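We emphasize that the prediction below concerns an isolated chain of 238 residues; any contacts that depend on oligomerization or on bound cofactors are therefore not represented. The input was used exactly as deposited, without trimming of termini.
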Amino acid sequence: MLVVTGTGTGVGKTVVTAAIAALARDAGRRVAVLKPAQTGVPVGAPGDVADVVRLAGEVTTRELRRYPDPLSPEAAALRSGIAAVGPAEAAGAATALDAGHDLVLIEGTGGLLVRYTPEGSSLADIAWALGALVLVVADAGDAALNVTALTAEVATARGLHVVGAVIGSWPREPGLAALATMRELTVAVGGPLLGALPEGMGAMDRARFLDHARRGLSPWFGGEFDAERFEKEISAGL
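Result of the prediction step, given as a C-alpha cell string:
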C-alpha cells in the first residue's frame, strides 16, 4: 500500500496517483485507488477517482465520503451533516481492497495533517494504522521546500516511512527557482526524487498520459525517470 499526500492542494496528487496506477496497470498488476474523503465536488459530478480512471484506465476505485464544500474533511463534514470518516474506517476499506489487488493507492485530501474528524484524525493516522509507505507530492515553487521538510519531519516523528517525493506539475518553462527546488527537494524530504511529471498531464489522453508517466516516474514505480539525467537536461536549457 502507498499513501499519496501533498504539500497542499493543487500540487498534482491525483495526477501522480493516476500515473502510478497507469504504470502498474500496464505491467499487468491489479490496482485499486481509495479516496477516503472527497471535498469540494457536488454529488453526481466526477471527482478525483473518476479522473484516475479517465487517465489510467479501468482500475478499482472507492470513495468513502463526499462533501460538497471545498473545506477540510472535518469542516466539510460538520457543515454538511454527513458523518466524518475516521482512520479505522479508511484503514478497513484499504485492507479490504488489498486482499484482491496487487497495489492499493490511498490519495489524501490536502496535506498530511489536514483534519478528517473532530478528534483531529488525519491522513497520517490512516497511514500509521495501515503501516503504509508515504509518498509526498510537491510543486516546483520556492515554498515547496519548507512544506516538504515539515511534512517529512512530522511523518518520521509519527513512525511513518516516507519513500521520497514526486514533483506533480513541472513547469513548461522552468527557471532557476524551479531547478533549485528540484535539487534541494531530496534534502527536504529526506529521500530520493522519484519523479517529475510535466504540467498539463491531466488533460492528456490515456496513451500520451501513460507515455509521460513512464518518462516522468522512477523505476521504483516501473518508469524510466532518472533524477540526475533530468537535472542535467534542465540545467542545459537554462
